[in-house]
Write a structure and sequence with these properties.
Elements: E1 7-10, E2 13-17, E3 28-31, H1 34-42, H2 49-66, H3 75-87, H4 95-106, H5 115-143, E4 153-157, H6 172-181, E5 186-191, H7 198-209, E6 214-217, H8 222-227, E7 233-236, E8 240-242, E9 247-250, H9 253-262, E10 267-270, E11 276-277, H10 294-297, E12 298-299, E13 302-303, E14 316-319, E15 326-328, E16 333-334, H11 339-347
Parallel strand pairs: 4-5, 4-7, 5-6, 7-10, 8-11, 10-15
Antiparallel strand pairs: 1-2, 2-3, 8-9, 9-14, 12-13, 15-16
Helix pairs in contact: 1-2, 1-3, 2-3, 2-4, 2-5, 5-6
The structure holds 5-S-methyl-1-O-phosphono-5-thio-D-ribulose (MRU).
């Protein structure tokens, strides 16, 4: 099966697999400006922390191409509105700001006539690096997991931390793919992930497409399957990891971590270094995106909730570092995430 490339350079524009349409239809959407890219990120055409970082980097490059002829202003002034718009279109996943700030830091060193091309090359490098990181994390994570004897390893995952959420291959699902590539018998249980069903629509689609044994459950079934001994390890991705190791990830992750601890099941978080935000001291300081009520009250355009009811819709929650058994990065695996072990990722 062809590897998935959710973010790509295509016909001189940014091409995104429209994830809102999956698994019914696989269609590429083109973006030719920062505004079009920001709207695609806001509306979840592309989602998942590393993937939105990659998309935003290409969004800044296409904005430079769009503005190349307008030579009255310098590049910083021309690109500032697009940079700011992209940087604020989703608040929780730090990869978005990380990727844009990286390109922004390169701008002063670029020859003015080369800016569009150089930004494009920098975006392509971010994409290539993310793919390499996913493969490295997959290997490192898989090597930490003990195979039960005589039966498949049973993995529970939440949301979509797969190829679709990254440059390809995936973080949590990168570990799943590496286990499969090591020839280990595995079975994945995917939570459907209310309210937008990233698990049912995206994770299940990706894994079934790859021929991996996958079972879909609703979010509220996870405790039942953990208590009945049907889960060996929980593997999830992350949107932002604070300097002390607290993990923001898709809403519901915290509950899974508490359940995993209660049932003595290892809880593995897999994320590239670009997801670790050393400027945010702890999880309470991570901004949590609240999305529209309609995502909870409606499905497929039809209202399912009683009229007049109030709704809360935080898209992410924070899992304390103390509940994380393993934090897998492309550099190394950390077994006790805390300020010292996280800081050491940059000093050793
Ligand atoms: O709202 P989403 O779909 O962007 O949320 C995605 C997640 O929470 C993923 O688990 C996270 O970004 C890790 S992706 C490798």
């Amino acid at each position: 099966m062809e590897p998935l490339a959710p973010v790509r350079w295509h016909n001189n524009r940014l091409g995104l697999i429209d994830q809102r349409l999956l698994p019914i239809e696989e269609r590429l959407m083109a973006c030719s400006s920062a505004e079009e890219t920001a709207q695609a990120i806001e509306t979840m055409v592309v989602r998942g922390a590393p993937a939105i970082g990659c998309a935003a980097a290409f969004g800044l490059a296409v904005e430079a191409m769009r503005l190349a002829a307008d030579q009255q202003l310098g590049w910083i002034e021309r690109l500032q509105p697009g940079y700011a718009r992209l940087r604020s279109c989703r608040p929780t996943a730090v990869n978005l700001a990380w990727a844009l700030d990286h390109l922004w830091s390169l701008l002063p060193g670029m020859a003015p006539h080369e800016v569009p091309q150089q930004l494009l090359m920098a975006a392509q490098q971010i994409l290539a690096d993310d793919l390499a990181s996913c493969r490295a994390m997959g290997q490192l994570g898989a090597d930490q997991i003990t195979q039960p004897s005589g039966r498949p390893l049973r993995i529970l995952t939440h949301c979509n931390a797969g190829a679709l959420a990254t440059a390809g291959y995936g973080t949590a699902l990168g570990v799943v793919r590496a286990l499969r590539d090591q020839g280990r018998p595995i079975r994945v249980m995917a939570t459907e992930t209310r309210p937008l069903l990233q698990g049912a629509r995206l994770t299940a689609w990706e894994l079934v497409r790859d021929g991996i044994d996958t079972t879909l459950i609703t979010d509220s079934m996870a405790g039942h399957f953990m208590s009945s001994g049907e889960v060996d390890v929980v593997i999830v991705g992350a949107d932002r990891v604070a300097a002390n190791g607290d993990v923001a990830n898709k809403i519901g992750t915290y509950a899974l971590a508490v359940l995993a601890r209660h049932h003595a099941i290892p809880f593995m978080v897999v994320c590239p270094l670009s997801t670790i935000d050393r400027a945010t001291a702890h999880g309470d300081a991570i901004p949590i995106e609240e999305r529209a009520a309609v995502e909870v009250t409606h499905w497929a355009g039809l209202r399912r909730a009683a009229e007049g009811v109030q709704v809360r819709n935080p898209a992410f929650d924070v899992t304390p570092a103390t509940l994380v058994s393993m934090l897998v990065t492309e550099k190394q695996v950390i077994f006790t995430p805390n300020e010292a072990t996280i800081a050491a990722l940059w000093t050793t």
